[in-house]
Amino acid sequence: MVCSRKGFPQLKTLLLRGLPNLEEGTVEEGAMPSLVRLGISDCYKLKVFPEGLMFITTLKELEIRWMTRAFKGLLQEDGKDFYKIPHMPSIVFLN
Hints:
The chain is mainly beta. It is built from one helix and six strands; from the N terminus they run βββββαβ.
């Protein structure tokens, strides 16, 4: 999945649910500039949190639901991808 620069300029909510074959996502800088809420659920092959999401400063809510422990571990405070999300005031992990 690729979100190109200037793509989806008015998108406020993105829910990635039930995508069992999604392995990676690329978000180019400048994509989805109005995104406020992101939900990722049931995307079991997703191994890395997309780097470009750290450039979306409007992103305030991140909900991770029914994902692997390994993926959730990436986003914990000591995880290797945590540096991509510290600006998000609401990060919720649900199972």
